[in-house]
Amino acid sequence: MPDHFNAETETTMPAALKSLAHWLMYAVLVISAGGLILLGKVDTVLIERVRLQVSDTVVPILDVLSIPGDIAARGVGWARHWIDLAEENDRLRRERDELMRWQATAKRLEAENAGLQRLLNHVPDPAATYRSARVIADSSGIFAQSMMINAGSLDGIDKGQIALDGSGLVGRVVGVSPRAGRVLLLTDLNSRVPVFVGASRFRAVLAGDNSGQPKLIHVVPGAAIAVGDAVMTSGIAGGFPPGLAVGVVVEVDDRRISVALNVDFSRLEYVRVVDYASIVSPPERPNALDDRRSGGSLAGNPAQRADAR
Q: Do 233 and 194 form a contact (C-beta atoms < 8 A)?
C-alpha cells in the first residue's frame, strides 16, 4: 500500500505543479500588462523611448525575415506577368490573323470596285479640303446651340462649310468674321440635316430641338426604325455630303424618335472644318441644261436669234 500511494502521488504532483505554474504565468502577464498600461499613462515619454528602442532592435530582424517573402512575392508577380504576356500574345496573334483575312477581303473588294468603276467610266469626287480649329467659346443655351472657333475668313473658313470631329458630324458654319467663325450645332432648333437611318437606309430629317438628343422627322411611313440603328447623312438636297456619321437611335415611340449624337459637345475642344463646296454643289437649272444640249443659248447663237425673230 505505501508503494502504491507513493506512485500515485508522484504522478499527480507534477500535473498540479504545471497547472499552478500556468496560472502564475497568466497572472504575471496580466499584472505586467496592467503595470505597463499604468506606466504608459504616468510616463508617456519613457514608454515611447522604450518602444523606439524595441523597434530599433526588432526592425533589422524583421527586414531579414521579410526577404524570403519579398522574393516569393516577386516570383509570383513575374510568373503572373509571363502568363499575362503569353495570353496577350495569343490574343494578338488571333487578331492579326483576323485582320489579315479582312485585309485580303478589302483588297479583293477594292480591286473589284476599281474594275466596276472603270467599266462605268466613273468620275471620282474631288478631294475635300479641311482646316483644324479650336473651340474658344460655347454659346449654347436654352434658346441657341452654337459655338465659336478661332478660325475665320482669313483662314479660308466660309459659311456653309461642315464641322467635324473624330466621332462624326458637329454642325455647319453659319457665321464668319476675319478671325472667328460660328458653328451651328446639330442640337440647335434651326438645324435640319437629311439622313439615312439603319441598314435599310430609310430617309428622314434630323431636327434639333435645343436638347441633347435631336429627333427624326419626316420619316418615311412604315419605316421599321429600331433602337440601335445608325444615323448618317444622306447628301439629299446638297446641304451635307453623304456618309457622315451622326449618331444612333436611342428611343422610338409614337411621339418621338430620339437620336444620341456621336459627338460629346461638353468635351469638344477641336473641330475640323471641311470645305465640301467642290463636292456638294446645287443642281443645275433645267433651262441651262437644255441650252447646253441644244448647243448654246439664244443669246449666244446668232442663227437661233434670227429664227426666233
A: yes
CA dist 56 → 43, 60, 154 (Å): 20, 7, 73
Residue ranges and CATH numbers for the domains of the chain are 129-275 (2.40.10.340)
Helix-helix angle 44-119:2-42, to 10 degrees: 80
Per-residue cell: 189: 432648333
Per-residue exposure over 100-118, b if at least 16 CB sit within 10 Å of its own CB, e if not: eeeeeeeeeeeeeeeeeee
Is the full-model pTM beyond 0.85?
A: no
Q: Is the dihedral of CA 214, 215, 218, 224 positive or negative?
A: positive
Backbone angles phi, psi at 216, to 5 degrees: -100, 130
Cα(184)–Cα(233) distance, integer angstroms: 16
- Whether 171 has a pLDDT exceeding 90, the answer reads yes
Within 10 angstroms of residue 1's Cβ, the number of other Cβ atoms is 5
Q: Which residues of 40-75 are buried (b: 16+ CB within 10 A; e: fewer)?
A: eeeeeeeeeeeeeeeeeeeeeeeeeeeeeeeeeeee
What letter does residue 218 receive in the DSSP assignment? S
**Mean pLDDT (whole number) for 228-248:** 89
| Cβ-Cβ contacts under 8 Å for 122 (sequence gap 6 or more) | 116
**The predicted structure's pLDDT at residue 74:** 86
Residue 299, pLDDT > 70, answer no
Q: What is the spatial distance between Cα 218 and Cα 227, in angstroms, rounded to a whole number?
A: 18
Label residue 131 exposed, middle or buried (CB < 10 Å: 0-12, 13-18, 19+).
Answer: middle
User: Which range scores top for mean pLDDT: 11-25, 93-107, 160-174?
Assistant: 160-174
* Amino acid at position 181, single letter: G
Q: Which positions ≥6 away from 243 have C-beta within 8 Å?
A: 232, 233, 235
Q: Worst-scoring range by mean pLDDT, 26-30, 180-184, 188-192?
A: 26-30
* CA torsion through residues 186, 190, 194, 199, sign: positive
